[in-house]
Amino acid sequence: MSSNARNDVSEQQESAAKTGHRLSRRHLLLGGAAAGIGAAGAIGVDVVVKGGIGASAPQTVPLFSGTAAVPFFGVHQAGVDTEPQSRVTFVALNLLPEVDRAALRRMMRILTDDAARLTQGEAALADSEPELAVVPARLTVTFGFGPGLVAVAGGEAPGWLRPLPAFTIDRLQPEWNDGDLLLQIASDDPLTVAHATRMLLKDLRSFATVRWVQSGFRRAAGSEKPGTTMRNLFGQVDGTANPDVGTTDFDGLVWSQADNPGWLVGGTGFVLRRISMNLDKWDGLDRSGRESAIGRTLANGAPLTGTQEQDVPDFTATTPLGFPVIPEFSHLRRARSENTAQRIHRRGYNYDDAPTGAAVSNSGLLFACFQADVDAQFVPIQTRLDTLDLLNEWTTPIGSAVFAIPPGCTKNGYIGDTLF
Amino acid sequence: MSSNARNDVSEQQESAAKTGHRLSRRHLLLGGAAAGIGAAGAIGVDVVVKGGIGASAPQTVPLFSGTAAVPFFGVHQAGVDTEPQSRVTFVALNLLPEVDRAALRRMMRILTDDAARLTQGEAALADSEPELAVVPARLTVTFGFGPGLVAVAGGEAPGWLRPLPAFTIDRLQPEWNDGDLLLQIASDDPLTVAHATRMLLKDLRSFATVRWVQSGFRRAAGSEKPGTTMRNLFGQVDGTANPDVGTTDFDGLVWSQADNPGWLVGGTGFVLRRISMNLDKWDGLDRSGRESAIGRTLANGAPLTGTQEQDVPDFTATTPLGFPVIPEFSHLRRARSENTAQRIHRRGYNYDDAPTGAAVSNSGLLFACFQADVDAQFVPIQTRLDTLDLLNEWTTPIGSAVFAIPPGCTKNGYIGDTLF
Q1: Nearest CB neighbour to A50, from listed B44, B128, B360
Q2: If we measure between CA atoms, which residue out of B395, B352, B11, B402 comes closest to residue B171?
Q3: Per the record, which residues fall in region Disordered (chains A, B) (predicted)?
């Protein structure tokens, strides 16, 4: 994820080597998951793995620990190809009218400095509660730029950096839309997310005001085998088709190449859709109805033509009566394209806010995804789902935002320095 | 915690015995913490502990795992003396007008049955998303009865089961007050809390409506050494003076004895105060000002007259200038009584909701505590804090609720069966 591997990662490699294990590139890509090993050693635990995690040879196990840290500096920002943490807070801000290009530069220097510290378990520069900073728990802070910020910076915006086209299924509530600056703050520890969010919002006091805050969750770190695809609140396995981190496939789909403005090379595009899920209505649907709507089994997420989650769906298979096994209207069929370039890297979270009135839930999905070109990758998928996707019966997009995620930076630079 | 130890606990003991470790009563009291060991085995990890957790002999380490389960049935309800989980949702409900004693009995039978299943990682009886039930992560569900429910049941209410006396510092917002029925749903996994909350609220559809929902968090399981006292969002170590679980001291302070109505013996009293914390204003205070306000160091929570968190404060110690080292107005001095019966078992959580307007935080403490007699234990402490506690400058109680927590039940009974 980063070419500037930090000291503690090297120490973990050394320590792993001593105990006869080796950290593969795959483990390093898992970031904090692998980093937990060193920390486990620190509290006096030897971990010996026999099999598991889909391999026959002995290997390290990602033991969760609060001291695990994901490198901040690197070619790309962290928080994109990082194995998703358990908790996230997305914050969008509006720049104050007086903020100009020079102020933006100061703002990003301050934010970069504090984010770099906090992600490594160090207090922010003016940290008023330094004791809350000591548990990074794989904290990542990822910055995104909206069209307004790029304009103030006088930079060239990629063509896709604008509100998404209006979809017929949308019932957008303005309070969840758009923004000039995005913070994605994610960690396996909710107190860490709260503290980092507060420190960064304090940095932003003289530059911007909060536009919206959206918090979400997945299973806690340690609840499941690492790499398990998340389930949403419908009980669906959600995100199976993601490209594999560390492959050229992933790199091509996610990281901006030269066809985007130069300042964005090594960055990516980000879409956040707040999707309300009507759990009460979903209750009225039986299991086979649910599986038809999705095109996958609920039990393990296998396509209806397969037995394992990762099986390739067979869209030509038919039932004895001649109907497609994976229905035309199913989410799986509508989301999938013949064009393999029309894919995205999903990194969503569930939300579950307090219900009001007679409803027993106020829940949904923070559908978050990364792709090099939003127009070429996300929009065609969403257009197909807009036209015909049975899941639309139970889901409603109520918020929408698009941001450009600038590349990472070196220790001497700051996030966004290619733009300013 | 329960005399009905479940099968998987026995299996863990057996498994622990095989590997040469023994689960002490203390470990059993830690519930899911210890239970993680069996689960670790299941995914192919051997854990060997060398020292740690404050003991010299080899012992088990509380390795977090989603499969860890806290027994549901027992003399007391779980979730009171259970080592606090990372996440909580408190829900208060209003009974529907048509609900009578017979309906209450049905309601509590249904809730008990589903809570018993869910806490053991089994689907609720009419679970629409059974796949979300498989990770209990130490889930506990604790039920509380407000005065309205006890009245409908025709039972005798303890004298303290009523709104707290009005304190001068209170700025209560009615939407956070009182209620007929309380659910405390806590787990180390946020998805588990969301699913259990939804299943139980579905059970309640024909009996009650939601009055308020308050969710909170502590550090994630695995972030810190088990038993570490939590920190609140002021950065304070919060809850040091708690009685030790499993001692006669704890039992006497927390579990109702014969001086409460008979149906409550083995139960306890519960107070939830929603305390808004003005982090912006707190920022204006330097470290020494903060430590004076609290009476403890921020670094490790030691009283200002000591060096370790658990040191007994010396209220007679004075500075060279003759002032008390622990100031008269400090929270520590005001909260502490000479009367050792005036103590409570705190089990609070942080909250951090989306800020509005120019504020950069909307945060505070879900101050939750258990005590056998609210009037004799909680009220005198709060009265002293109301009169003079410098912390009142930065904190405001905005919600308040009192519930009677009935005792636990056997497999053939249901929560509240001593009342009905």
Answers
A1: B44
A2: B395
A3: 1-21
Reading chain B (420 residues) residue by residue, the pLDDT tens digits are: 333 333 333 333 333 333 333 333 233 333 333 333 333 333 333 333 332 333 333 333 345 578 899 999 999 999 999 999 999 999 999 999 999 999 999 999 999 999 999 999 999 999 999 999 999 999 999 999 999 999 999 999 999 999 999 999 999 999 999 999 999 999 999 999 999 999 999 999 999 999 999 999 999 988 888 788 999 999 999 888 899 999 999 999 999 988 889 999 999 999 999 999 999 899 889 999 999 988 999 999 999 999 999 999 999 999 999 999 998 888 888 888 888 899 999 999 999 988 776 677 789 999 999 999 999 999 999 998 888 878 888 999 999 999 999 999 999 999 999 999
- Asked if residue A5 lies in contact with residue A24, where contact means CB atoms within 8 angstroms, the answer is no
Burial of A38 (0-12, 13-18, 19+ CB in 10 A): buried
Give phi and psi for A37, each to the nearest 5.
Answer: -60, -50
State the smallest CA–CA distance between residue A412 and chain B in angstroms: 29
| ipTM of the complex as predicted | 0.85
For β-strands A268-277 and A395-405, DSSP reports them as antiparallel
Handedness of CA B105, B106, B109, B110 (dihedral sign): negative
Q: Which residues of B are catalytic?
A: 238
Helix residue spans in A19-66 (DSSP H): 25-29, 32-42
Using only C-alpha atoms, what is the Rg of chain A? 22
Q: Within 10 A of B139 (CB to CB), how many other CB atoms are there?
A: 32
Q: Does B43 touch chain A (CB under 8 A)?
A: yes
- Whether the CB of A201 is below 8 Å from some CB of chain B: the reply is yes
DSSP B75: S
DSSP string, B338-386: S-TTS--EE--EEEEEPP-TT-S-EEEEEEEEEES-IIIIIHHHHHHHH
Q: Indicate the residue type of B35.
A: A
The residues, ordered by sequence, that sit 6+ positions from B56 with a Cβ below 8 Å of its Cβ are none
Is B360 at the interface with chain A, CB within 8 A? Answer: yes
pTM of the model: 0.86
The conformation of residue A163, written as its DSSP 8-state character, comes to P
CB B48 within 8 Å of CB B382 = no
B359 to chain A, minimum CA–CA distance in Å? 9
Q: DSSP assignment of B16-70, as one string?
A: HHHTT----HHHHHTTHHHHHHHHHHHTTEEEEE-S-TT-SS--------TT---
- Token code pair at residue A182: 């995005």
Place of tokens 């904290």: A139
Number of alpha carbons in the 13 Å side-chain half-sphere of residue A280: 12
